[in-house]
Amino acid sequence: MSEGIAEVAASAAEASHGGWRRATGVAGVAIGVLATGAAAGVAIERMTVGRGMRKKARLALDSTGPYGSLRGTPGRAYSDDGTELYYEVDDLDPDPEATPARRRRLFGRRSPAPVTVVFSHGYCLNQDSWHFQRAALRGVVRTVYWDQRSHGRSARGAAQTERDEPVTIDQLGRDLKAVIDAAAPEGPLVLVGHSMGGMTVMALAEQYPELMLERCAGVALIGTSSGRLGEVNFGLPMAGVNAVRRLLPGVLKALGQRAELVEKGRRATADLFAGVIKRYSFASRDVDPAVARFAERMIEGTPIDVVAEYYPAFDDHDKTEALAHFAGLPVLVLAGTQDLVTPSEHSEAIADLLPDGELVLVPDAGHLVMLEHPEVVTDRLADLLVRAGAMPAGATVDGYGSSSTVRPG
């Protein structure tokens, strides 16, 4: 196994010195691994279904799957380096004619608490990764979903494209502050982050402690880490992990410089790419194929040069001290027990530093736990929102919510 991994990495390294045509298939595999947050190759069993049939199945899932179809009121914020950040707001009871009756049904005679829940997504995903939670919370609480720089509908990072500066987790924290200033300038906040999004929330807390003290009513950290990501082995033998880590920085830089050619190789290895994504995203054997394809579409939509410019930031990430800013707040720390990207031990380490927080470990769950077991994540989020005063205990939140593009009336 370790020899095969080293061979993949070595072949990719060859691409940085030439031989691009021969290496594009290998590059596609490497990108697939990186896109799920892992830094090594995996062995994938060959599918027995014909390639043409698999392609038709993917097209069918793309055309019929409702996931990622929910949209809100669009807005744009601008980070300190000028990067345009796209966000959407789902307001509480957006239909004015339905507001009085709906408010009475949800809250009785009480007015809803003026709390905004801000969702930050992970590496190589976008705001649609919160599909199930968004569907369940629409009309119940005010929510903001945004795309991190160079992801989704947000613009490419200005500092990266104009000045060739590396992406940092601290920069992502400042991006989140810009979104909050634009989309939720007043009122209490509940901050929800998955994976890189959780790291973004930690960076926000570290740089803007006064915001946490004055406005933060609760925090949810899902499948994330406060540091020591360089020690993660992604479920692989350590020899293979060390080989890939040694070669990876140069390989990524080279691949990022040949983005167009690499993307062709990525498309050519779509079947293997899908297998890698499933391996590092989910743990359950019975994941809905439409959900798996939805995750694949989000990840494959992240350009290789974006994958490359983000990757070094994770080894540098250490926000353990920032967790002190969450002390005394309602905090949810949740992870899948079989997460290979940010192992559940990292969530346990966070929870150890937040003794008043709630630690939830979800069995048979991988990195994309909010898509794999949406009912568990939504249920625990709803409980957090009640504790944070974002919604009353009597409000009904369905574990899956509606996948309809029509807002509830």
List the SSEs and their pairings.
Layout: H1 2-15, H2 20-35, H3 51-64, E1 73-78, E2 84-90, H4 99-107, E3 116-120, H5 131-137, E4 142-146, H6 158-163, H7 169-183, E5 189-194, H8 196-207, H9 209-215, E6 216-222, H10 238-257, H11 259-268, H12 270-281, H13 289-300, H14 304-316, E7 331-336, H15 344-352, E8 358-362, H16 369-372, H17 374-387
Parallel strand pairs: 3-4, 3-5, 5-6, 6-7, 7-8
Antiparallel strand pairs: 1-2, 2-4
Note down, in words, how this protein is organized.
- With 409 residues, the chain is of the alpha/beta class.
- The protein has 2 domains: 2-43 and 51-65 and 233-313, no CATH class; 73-229 and 316-387, Rossmann fold (3-Layer(aba) Sandwich).
- 47% of the residues lie in helices and 11% in strands.
- It is built from 17 helices and 8 strands.
- The chain has helices spanning 2-15, 20-35, 51-64, 99-107, 131-137, 158-163, 169-183, 196-207, 209-215, 238-257, 259-268, 270-281, 289-300, 304-316, 344-352, 369-372, 374-387; strands at 73-78, 84-90, 116-120, 142-146, 189-194, 216-222, 331-336, 358-362.
- An 8-stranded mixed sheet has the order 1-2-4-3-5-6-7-8, with helices on both faces.
- 53% of the residues are buried.
Mean pLDDT: 79
- Can you summarize the main beta sheet? 8 strands, mixed
**Number of helices, counting only DSSP H or I runs of 4 residues or more:** 17
- What is the CATH architecture descriptor of the largest domain? 3-Layer(aba) Sandwich
- How many E-type strands? 8
CATH topology descriptor of the largest domain? Rossmann fold
The span between the termini is 55 Å
User: Looking at the chains present, what oligomeric state does this protein adopt?
Assistant: single chain
CATH class of the largest domain: Alpha Beta
Strand content: 5-15%
Helix content: 40-55%
* Global outline: globular
Rg, rounded, reads 21 Å
Strand order of the largest sheet: 1-2-4-3-5-6-7-8
Secondary-structure element order, N to C: HHHEEHEHEHHEHHEHHHHHEHEHH
Q: How many distinct folded domains?
A: 2
CATH superfamily of the largest domain: Alpha/Beta hydrolase fold, catalytic domain
Pick out the low-confidence regions. Answer: 1-49, 95-100, 106-113, 402-409
Q: What is the structural class? A: alpha/beta
